[in-house]
Specification:
Layout lengths: L17 H17 L3 E2 L5 E3 H7 L5 H4 L15 E3 L4 H10 L9 E10 L11 E10 L5 H17 L4 E7 L6 H14 L6 H9 L12 H6 L10 H16 L5 E2 L11 E9 L10 E5 L3 H4 L7 E7 H10 L12 E5 L5 H13 L4 E3 L6 H10 L4 E5 L7 E6 L4 E6 H11 L6
Parallel strand pairs: 1-4, 6-7, 11-12, 11-13
Antiparallel strand pairs: 2-3, 4-5, 5-10, 6-8, 8-9, 9-10, 13-14, 14-15
Helix pairs in contact: 1-5, 5-9
The chain binds histidyl-adenosine monophosphate.
Amino acid sequence: MPSFRAPRGTRDLLPAERPGWARLERLAAELAARYGYREIETPLFEQSDVFERGVGETTDIVEKELFRLAPRAEDRETWALRPEATAGIVRAFIQHGMQTWPQPVKLTLTGPMFRYDRPQAGRYRQFWQWDVEAIGDAGPAVDAELVELGLRFYRDAGLPDVDVLLNSIGDPACRPAYVAELTAYYRSIADELPELERRRLETNPLRLLDSKEPAMGNINLDAPKITDRLCGPCAEHFAAVRAHLDALGISYRIEPALVRGLDYYTRTAFEFYRRGAEGQQQALGGGGRYDGLVELLGGRPTPGIGFALGLDRVILALEETGRPPVPEPRPIAIVCGADPAATAERLRVATELRAAGLPVRAELGRRKLGRQLEAAVKEGARFAVILGDELAAGEVQLRDLHAASQRPVALADLAALLHRKTPPTGG
Ligand code: HAM
Protein backbone atom coordinates (compact mmCIF):
# COMPACT_ATOMS: atom_id res chain seq x y z
CA MET A 1 0.00 0.00 0.00
CA PRO A 2 1.32 3.49 -0.76
CA SER A 3 1.64 5.74 2.26
CA PHE A 4 0.22 9.07 1.20
CA ARG A 5 1.28 12.31 2.81
CA ALA A 6 0.25 15.95 2.40
CA PRO A 7 2.33 17.51 -0.44
CA ARG A 8 5.69 18.98 0.50
CA GLY A 9 5.32 22.52 1.80
CA THR A 10 1.66 22.02 2.81
CA ARG A 11 0.15 21.08 6.14
CA ASP A 12 -3.03 19.66 7.54
CA LEU A 13 -4.43 22.00 10.14
CA LEU A 14 -5.69 19.54 12.73
CA PRO A 15 -8.72 20.07 15.01
CA ALA A 16 -6.53 21.13 17.94
CA GLU A 17 -4.90 23.88 15.80
CA ARG A 18 -7.92 25.17 13.92
CA PRO A 19 -9.41 27.23 16.79
CA GLY A 20 -6.24 29.38 16.85
CA TRP A 21 -6.65 30.04 13.13
CA ALA A 22 -10.37 30.65 13.47
CA ARG A 23 -9.63 33.26 16.13
CA LEU A 24 -7.35 35.14 13.68
CA GLU A 25 -9.92 34.85 10.90
CA ARG A 26 -12.62 36.28 13.18
CA LEU A 27 -10.32 39.10 14.24
CA ALA A 28 -9.48 39.89 10.59
CA ALA A 29 -13.16 39.89 9.61
CA GLU A 30 -14.13 42.02 12.59
CA LEU A 31 -11.38 44.60 12.00
CA ALA A 32 -12.03 44.71 8.26
CA ALA A 33 -15.69 45.48 8.92
CA ARG A 34 -14.81 48.08 11.58
CA TYR A 35 -12.51 49.87 9.11
CA GLY A 36 -14.99 49.68 6.23
CA TYR A 37 -13.47 46.91 4.11
CA ARG A 38 -16.00 44.71 2.30
CA GLU A 39 -15.43 41.03 1.71
CA ILE A 40 -14.63 39.66 -1.72
CA GLU A 41 -13.72 36.16 -2.87
CA THR A 42 -11.78 35.59 -6.07
CA PRO A 43 -10.93 32.22 -7.66
CA LEU A 44 -7.94 30.29 -6.33
CA PHE A 45 -6.61 30.32 -9.90
CA GLU A 46 -6.51 32.98 -12.59
CA GLN A 47 -5.17 33.32 -16.11
CA SER A 48 -1.38 33.19 -15.66
CA ASP A 49 -1.20 36.56 -17.40
CA VAL A 50 -2.92 38.26 -14.46
CA PHE A 51 0.08 37.39 -12.30
CA GLU A 52 2.74 37.72 -15.01
CA ARG A 53 1.63 41.26 -15.80
CA GLY A 54 0.43 42.19 -12.34
CA VAL A 55 3.12 40.82 -10.04
CA GLY A 56 5.82 41.07 -12.74
CA GLU A 57 7.49 38.57 -15.05
CA THR A 58 10.96 38.91 -13.57
CA THR A 59 9.93 38.59 -9.91
CA ASP A 60 10.80 35.40 -8.02
CA ILE A 61 7.10 34.91 -7.35
CA VAL A 62 6.33 34.56 -11.07
CA GLU A 63 9.64 33.37 -12.50
CA LYS A 64 10.31 30.58 -10.02
CA GLU A 65 7.36 30.14 -7.71
CA LEU A 66 4.19 30.21 -9.82
CA PHE A 67 2.13 26.99 -9.57
CA ARG A 68 1.11 26.68 -13.20
CA LEU A 69 -1.76 24.33 -13.99
CA ALA A 70 -1.00 21.87 -16.79
CA PRO A 71 -3.08 22.98 -19.79
CA ARG A 72 -5.40 20.55 -21.57
CA ALA A 73 -5.23 20.33 -25.35
CA GLU A 74 -8.49 22.30 -25.78
CA ASP A 75 -7.48 25.18 -23.46
CA ARG A 76 -6.79 28.50 -25.10
CA GLU A 77 -5.54 30.06 -21.88
CA THR A 78 -3.08 29.01 -19.22
CA TRP A 79 -3.87 29.22 -15.52
CA ALA A 80 -1.91 29.42 -12.32
CA LEU A 81 -2.79 29.14 -8.63
CA ARG A 82 -2.84 32.57 -7.02
CA PRO A 83 0.49 33.43 -5.34
CA GLU A 84 -1.11 36.50 -3.74
CA ALA A 85 -4.47 38.26 -3.74
CA THR A 86 -3.86 41.76 -5.08
CA ALA A 87 -3.63 40.98 -8.81
CA GLY A 88 -6.85 38.92 -8.73
CA ILE A 89 -8.72 41.56 -6.73
CA VAL A 90 -7.63 44.26 -9.19
CA ARG A 91 -8.72 42.01 -12.08
CA ALA A 92 -12.14 41.73 -10.39
CA PHE A 93 -12.23 45.51 -9.79
CA ILE A 94 -11.85 46.10 -13.53
CA GLN A 95 -14.11 43.25 -14.66
CA HIS A 96 -17.04 44.40 -12.50
CA GLY A 97 -16.72 48.09 -13.33
CA MET A 98 -15.87 49.07 -9.75
CA GLN A 99 -14.44 52.33 -11.10
CA THR A 100 -18.06 53.53 -11.13
CA TRP A 101 -18.63 52.62 -7.45
CA PRO A 102 -18.09 55.26 -4.76
CA GLN A 103 -14.31 55.56 -4.36
CA PRO A 104 -12.22 54.26 -2.75
CA VAL A 105 -13.40 50.68 -3.11
CA LYS A 106 -12.18 48.93 0.04
CA LEU A 107 -11.99 45.16 -0.23
CA THR A 108 -10.76 42.31 1.95
CA LEU A 109 -10.10 38.62 1.47
CA THR A 110 -8.71 35.88 3.69
CA GLY A 111 -7.58 32.64 2.12
CA PRO A 112 -4.85 30.35 0.90
CA MET A 113 -2.11 31.44 -1.51
CA PHE A 114 0.34 29.19 -3.35
CA ARG A 115 4.03 29.65 -4.10
CA TYR A 116 6.32 26.91 -5.34
CA ASP A 117 9.18 27.82 -3.07
CA ARG A 118 11.69 25.73 -1.14
CA PRO A 119 9.77 24.88 2.03
CA GLN A 120 11.21 25.72 5.45
CA ALA A 121 10.01 27.13 8.76
CA GLY A 122 7.69 30.04 7.96
CA ARG A 123 7.77 29.35 4.24
CA TYR A 124 5.12 27.08 2.82
CA ARG A 125 3.82 26.23 -0.61
CA GLN A 126 0.28 26.78 0.60
CA PHE A 127 -0.09 29.55 3.15
CA TRP A 128 -2.82 31.91 4.33
CA GLN A 129 -3.07 35.66 4.00
CA TRP A 130 -5.40 38.30 5.31
CA ASP A 131 -5.43 40.80 2.47
CA VAL A 132 -6.94 44.31 2.37
CA GLU A 133 -6.99 46.71 -0.57
CA ALA A 134 -8.16 50.33 -0.85
CA ILE A 135 -8.53 51.12 -4.55
CA GLY A 136 -9.22 54.64 -5.79
CA ASP A 137 -7.51 56.77 -3.13
CA ALA A 138 -4.14 58.32 -3.94
CA GLY A 139 -3.29 58.86 -0.27
CA PRO A 140 -1.37 59.79 1.81
CA ALA A 141 -3.86 59.46 4.72
CA VAL A 142 -5.10 56.03 3.63
CA ASP A 143 -1.48 54.81 3.57
CA ALA A 144 -1.18 55.63 7.27
CA GLU A 145 -4.64 54.21 8.00
CA LEU A 146 -3.54 50.86 6.57
CA VAL A 147 -0.32 50.72 8.56
CA GLU A 148 -2.31 51.43 11.71
CA LEU A 149 -4.82 48.70 10.82
CA GLY A 150 -2.02 46.15 10.35
CA LEU A 151 -0.50 47.02 13.71
CA ARG A 152 -3.88 46.80 15.42
CA PHE A 153 -4.38 43.31 14.04
CA TYR A 154 -1.06 42.12 15.47
CA ARG A 155 -1.70 43.78 18.80
CA ASP A 156 -5.21 42.36 19.14
CA ALA A 157 -3.91 38.96 18.03
CA GLY A 158 -1.46 39.01 20.94
CA LEU A 159 1.73 40.36 19.33
CA PRO A 160 2.30 43.86 20.72
CA ASP A 161 5.98 44.10 19.68
CA VAL A 162 5.66 44.51 15.93
CA ASP A 163 7.74 47.10 14.09
CA VAL A 164 6.90 48.80 10.80
CA LEU A 165 9.64 49.24 8.25
CA LEU A 166 8.71 52.00 5.81
CA ASN A 167 10.05 53.23 2.49
CA SER A 168 9.04 55.03 -0.66
CA ILE A 169 10.20 53.41 -3.87
CA GLY A 170 9.26 56.31 -6.13
CA ASP A 171 7.16 56.24 -9.26
CA PRO A 172 7.67 56.14 -13.05
CA ALA A 173 8.84 59.77 -12.92
CA CYS A 174 11.80 59.19 -10.61
CA ARG A 175 12.46 55.47 -10.34
CA PRO A 176 13.97 54.86 -13.82
CA ALA A 177 16.77 57.39 -13.21
CA TYR A 178 17.37 55.85 -9.77
CA VAL A 179 17.44 52.31 -11.17
CA ALA A 180 19.91 53.44 -13.84
CA GLU A 181 22.14 54.98 -11.19
CA LEU A 182 21.87 51.86 -9.03
CA THR A 183 22.67 49.59 -11.99
CA ALA A 184 25.71 51.70 -12.85
CA TYR A 185 26.88 51.43 -9.23
CA TYR A 186 26.56 47.63 -9.19
CA ARG A 187 28.16 47.31 -12.64
CA SER A 188 31.14 49.31 -11.46
CA ILE A 189 31.82 46.61 -8.87
CA ALA A 190 30.40 43.66 -10.84
CA ASP A 191 33.30 41.33 -10.02
CA GLU A 192 32.55 41.68 -6.29
CA LEU A 193 28.93 40.58 -6.76
CA PRO A 194 27.87 36.99 -6.02
CA GLU A 195 26.92 35.06 -9.17
CA LEU A 196 23.16 35.11 -8.48
CA GLU A 197 23.16 38.86 -7.89
CA ARG A 198 25.16 39.51 -11.08
CA ARG A 199 22.42 37.73 -13.02
CA ARG A 200 19.63 39.55 -11.18
CA LEU A 201 21.30 42.85 -11.99
CA GLU A 202 20.26 42.41 -15.61
CA THR A 203 16.59 41.67 -14.85
CA ASN A 204 15.64 43.26 -11.54
CA PRO A 205 18.42 45.45 -10.08
CA LEU A 206 16.24 46.76 -7.23
CA ARG A 207 16.13 43.25 -5.74
CA LEU A 208 19.88 43.40 -5.04
CA LEU A 209 19.14 46.00 -2.40
CA ASP A 210 17.38 43.58 -0.07
CA SER A 211 19.64 40.65 -0.94
CA LYS A 212 20.34 38.37 2.01
CA GLU A 213 23.76 37.36 0.60
CA PRO A 214 26.31 38.23 3.30
CA ALA A 215 28.70 39.62 0.66
CA MET A 216 26.09 42.23 -0.26
CA GLY A 217 25.99 43.81 3.20
CA ASN A 218 28.82 46.29 2.73
CA ILE A 219 28.15 46.74 -0.98
CA ASN A 220 24.62 47.84 -0.20
CA LEU A 221 25.72 50.24 2.52
CA ASP A 222 27.35 52.38 -0.19
CA ALA A 223 24.58 51.96 -2.76
CA PRO A 224 22.63 55.10 -3.76
CA LYS A 225 19.42 55.42 -1.74
CA ILE A 226 16.00 55.87 -3.34
CA THR A 227 14.90 58.09 -0.47
CA ASP A 228 17.50 60.69 -1.61
CA ARG A 229 16.39 60.45 -5.26
CA LEU A 230 12.59 60.84 -5.05
CA CYS A 231 10.97 63.37 -7.38
CA GLY A 232 9.10 66.30 -5.79
CA PRO A 233 5.61 64.73 -5.75
CA CYS A 234 6.91 61.38 -4.39
CA ALA A 235 8.98 63.11 -1.69
CA GLU A 236 5.93 65.18 -0.74
CA HIS A 237 3.74 62.08 -0.58
CA PHE A 238 6.28 60.24 1.56
CA ALA A 239 6.59 63.17 3.96
CA ALA A 240 2.80 63.36 4.23
CA VAL A 241 2.51 59.62 4.97
CA ARG A 242 5.05 60.06 7.75
CA ALA A 243 3.21 63.10 9.10
CA HIS A 244 -0.03 61.09 9.24
CA LEU A 245 1.71 58.25 11.07
CA ASP A 246 3.20 60.79 13.48
CA ALA A 247 -0.26 62.23 14.07
CA LEU A 248 -1.46 58.74 15.01
CA GLY A 249 1.49 58.33 17.35
CA ILE A 250 2.82 55.38 15.35
CA SER A 251 6.55 54.91 15.32
CA TYR A 252 8.18 53.42 12.22
CA ARG A 253 11.64 52.87 10.86
CA ILE A 254 12.61 54.22 7.46
CA GLU A 255 14.35 51.42 5.59
CA PRO A 256 15.72 52.65 2.22
CA ALA A 257 16.60 49.07 1.15
CA LEU A 258 13.00 47.88 1.49
CA VAL A 259 11.92 47.32 -2.11
CA ARG A 260 9.44 44.37 -1.79
CA GLY A 261 9.37 41.39 -4.10
CA LEU A 262 6.53 42.42 -6.39
CA ASP A 263 6.83 44.77 -9.36
CA TYR A 264 3.56 46.64 -9.00
CA TYR A 265 4.61 48.89 -6.15
CA THR A 266 4.95 52.65 -6.42
CA ARG A 267 5.74 55.08 -3.63
CA THR A 268 4.78 53.73 -0.18
CA ALA A 269 6.14 50.28 0.73
CA PHE A 270 6.09 48.74 4.19
CA GLU A 271 6.70 45.50 6.05
CA PHE A 272 5.87 44.26 9.54
CA TYR A 273 8.36 42.34 11.70
CA ARG A 274 8.36 41.12 15.26
CA ARG A 275 10.99 43.08 17.19
CA GLY A 276 14.29 41.20 17.05
CA ALA A 277 13.08 38.81 14.33
CA GLU A 278 13.86 40.54 11.05
CA GLY A 279 15.43 37.70 9.10
CA GLN A 280 14.45 36.20 5.80
CA GLN A 281 11.06 34.42 5.95
CA GLN A 282 10.21 36.38 9.07
CA ALA A 283 8.13 39.23 7.63
CA LEU A 284 4.75 38.97 9.31
CA GLY A 285 3.17 41.01 6.56
CA GLY A 286 3.81 43.62 3.93
CA GLY A 287 2.17 45.93 1.50
CA GLY A 288 2.31 49.14 -0.39
CA ARG A 289 0.92 51.42 -3.02
CA TYR A 290 0.33 50.24 -6.59
CA ASP A 291 -0.82 53.31 -8.50
CA GLY A 292 -0.08 51.74 -11.91
CA LEU A 293 -1.60 48.28 -11.45
CA VAL A 294 -5.22 48.93 -12.46
CA GLU A 295 -4.03 50.43 -15.73
CA LEU A 296 -1.49 47.64 -16.25
CA LEU A 297 -4.29 45.07 -16.05
CA GLY A 298 -6.46 46.97 -18.54
CA GLY A 299 -8.47 49.42 -16.42
CA ARG A 300 -8.59 53.21 -16.20
CA PRO A 301 -5.65 54.69 -14.28
CA THR A 302 -6.64 54.30 -10.61
CA PRO A 303 -4.40 54.49 -7.55
CA GLY A 304 -4.45 51.75 -4.94
CA ILE A 305 -2.79 50.51 -1.79
CA GLY A 306 -3.07 47.40 0.35
CA PHE A 307 -1.34 44.85 2.48
CA ALA A 308 -1.31 41.14 3.17
CA LEU A 309 -0.53 39.65 6.57
CA GLY A 310 0.79 36.08 6.67
CA LEU A 311 -1.41 34.12 9.07
CA ASP A 312 0.95 31.11 9.23
CA ARG A 313 3.70 33.37 10.50
CA VAL A 314 1.42 35.07 13.01
CA ILE A 315 0.51 31.62 14.39
CA LEU A 316 4.22 30.70 14.57
CA ALA A 317 5.06 33.96 16.33
CA LEU A 318 2.27 33.42 18.86
CA GLU A 319 3.61 29.93 19.58
CA GLU A 320 7.14 31.28 19.96
CA THR A 321 6.00 33.93 22.41
CA GLY A 322 4.41 31.18 24.53
CA ARG A 323 0.79 32.08 24.03
CA PRO A 324 -1.36 29.12 25.08
CA PRO A 325 -3.32 27.49 22.26
CA VAL A 326 -6.98 28.43 21.83
CA PRO A 327 -9.01 25.53 23.29
CA GLU A 328 -11.40 23.57 21.12
CA PRO A 329 -15.08 24.03 21.90
CA ARG A 330 -16.44 21.21 24.10
CA PRO A 331 -19.93 19.72 24.18
CA ILE A 332 -21.93 20.96 27.17
CA ALA A 333 -23.44 17.52 27.61
CA ILE A 334 -23.28 13.93 26.42
CA VAL A 335 -26.55 12.04 26.27
CA CYS A 336 -25.93 8.63 27.85
CA GLY A 337 -28.20 5.79 28.89
CA ALA A 338 -28.48 2.82 31.23
CA ASP A 339 -29.67 0.58 28.39
CA PRO A 340 -26.79 0.31 25.90
CA ALA A 341 -29.22 -0.72 23.13
CA ALA A 342 -31.47 2.36 23.45
CA THR A 343 -29.61 4.40 20.83
CA ALA A 344 -32.82 5.78 19.28
CA GLU A 345 -33.80 7.42 22.60
CA ARG A 346 -30.39 8.96 23.08
CA LEU A 347 -30.33 10.25 19.52
CA ARG A 348 -33.83 11.73 19.90
CA VAL A 349 -33.03 13.60 23.13
CA ALA A 350 -29.71 14.88 21.70
CA THR A 351 -31.49 16.01 18.54
CA GLU A 352 -33.99 18.01 20.61
CA LEU A 353 -31.18 19.67 22.57
CA ARG A 354 -29.28 20.51 19.38
CA ALA A 355 -32.47 21.93 17.86
CA ALA A 356 -32.54 24.20 20.92
CA GLY A 357 -29.02 25.39 19.96
CA LEU A 358 -26.92 23.36 22.41
CA PRO A 359 -23.61 21.66 21.51
CA VAL A 360 -24.38 18.11 22.56
CA ARG A 361 -23.08 14.67 21.65
CA ALA A 362 -25.18 11.53 21.87
CA GLU A 363 -23.66 8.23 22.85
CA LEU A 364 -24.52 6.21 19.73
CA GLY A 365 -22.41 3.17 20.54
CA ARG A 366 -23.64 0.26 22.61
CA ARG A 367 -21.16 0.36 25.45
CA LYS A 368 -22.03 0.12 29.14
CA LEU A 369 -23.04 3.26 31.05
CA GLY A 370 -19.74 3.29 33.00
CA ARG A 371 -17.80 3.46 29.74
CA GLN A 372 -20.12 6.11 28.34
CA LEU A 373 -19.47 8.32 31.38
CA GLU A 374 -15.70 7.79 31.16
CA ALA A 375 -15.77 8.91 27.52
CA ALA A 376 -17.88 11.94 28.46
CA VAL A 377 -15.30 13.01 31.06
CA LYS A 378 -12.45 12.53 28.55
CA GLU A 379 -14.23 14.73 26.05
CA GLY A 380 -14.42 17.52 28.59
CA ALA A 381 -18.22 17.67 28.71
CA ARG A 382 -19.67 19.40 31.75
CA PHE A 383 -22.77 17.18 32.07
CA ALA A 384 -24.04 13.72 31.26
CA VAL A 385 -27.75 13.46 30.55
CA ILE A 386 -28.60 9.91 31.63
CA LEU A 387 -31.70 8.28 30.20
CA GLY A 388 -33.35 5.50 32.21
CA ASP A 389 -36.75 4.26 33.23
CA GLU A 390 -37.87 7.76 34.33
CA LEU A 391 -37.89 8.83 30.67
CA ALA A 392 -41.40 7.42 30.37
CA ALA A 393 -42.42 10.01 32.99
CA GLY A 394 -40.58 12.81 31.15
CA GLU A 395 -37.55 12.85 33.44
CA VAL A 396 -33.81 12.29 33.06
CA GLN A 397 -30.85 12.23 35.45
CA LEU A 398 -28.47 15.17 35.01
CA ARG A 399 -24.99 14.33 36.20
CA ASP A 400 -22.56 17.17 36.82
CA LEU A 401 -19.26 15.60 35.74
CA HIS A 402 -17.19 18.27 37.49
CA ALA A 403 -18.98 18.02 40.84
CA ALA A 404 -19.75 14.29 40.46
CA SER A 405 -23.32 14.99 41.68
CA GLN A 406 -26.56 13.89 40.08
CA ARG A 407 -30.22 14.91 40.21
CA PRO A 408 -33.45 14.34 38.31
CA VAL A 409 -34.53 17.03 35.83
CA ALA A 410 -37.72 17.28 33.80
CA LEU A 411 -36.95 16.79 30.10
CA ALA A 412 -39.03 19.89 29.42
CA ASP A 413 -36.66 22.03 31.53
CA LEU A 414 -33.42 20.46 30.32
CA ALA A 415 -32.56 22.76 27.40
CA ALA A 416 -33.13 25.95 29.39
CA LEU A 417 -31.04 24.63 32.27
CA LEU A 418 -28.14 23.61 30.00
CA HIS A 419 -28.28 27.02 28.25
CA ARG A 420 -27.80 28.71 31.62
CA LYS A 421 -24.75 26.51 32.26
CA THR A 422 -23.16 27.04 28.79
CA PRO A 423 -20.14 29.34 28.95
CA PRO A 424 -20.13 32.19 26.40
CA THR A 425 -18.16 31.31 23.23
CA GLY A 426 -15.31 33.31 21.72
CA GLY A 427 -11.81 34.10 22.65
P1 HAM B 1 4.11 39.53 0.23
O1 HAM B 1 5.11 40.33 0.95
O2 HAM B 1 4.59 38.70 -0.91
O3 HAM B 1 3.00 40.56 -0.27
O4 HAM B 1 3.34 38.59 1.24
C1 HAM B 1 2.74 39.11 2.41
C2 HAM B 1 2.99 38.18 3.58
O5 HAM B 1 2.57 36.85 3.30
C3 HAM B 1 4.47 38.02 3.95
O6 HAM B 1 4.92 39.10 4.72
C4 HAM B 1 4.43 36.72 4.74
O7 HAM B 1 4.01 36.95 6.07
C5 HAM B 1 3.36 35.94 4.02
N1 HAM B 1 4.00 34.96 3.09
C6 HAM B 1 4.47 35.20 1.85
N2 HAM B 1 4.98 34.07 1.30
C7 HAM B 1 4.82 33.10 2.23
C8 HAM B 1 5.13 31.69 2.28
N3 HAM B 1 5.70 31.07 1.24
N4 HAM B 1 4.83 30.99 3.41
C9 HAM B 1 4.25 31.63 4.47
N5 HAM B 1 3.92 32.93 4.47
C10 HAM B 1 4.20 33.66 3.38
C11 HAM B 1 1.90 40.23 -0.98
O8 HAM B 1 1.52 39.10 -1.14
C12 HAM B 1 1.13 41.44 -1.50
N6 HAM B 1 -0.02 40.93 -2.30
C13 HAM B 1 0.69 42.33 -0.37
C14 HAM B 1 -0.10 43.51 -0.85
C15 HAM B 1 -1.44 43.64 -0.83
N7 HAM B 1 0.39 44.59 -1.41
C16 HAM B 1 -0.58 45.41 -1.73
N8 HAM B 1 -1.71 44.84 -1.42
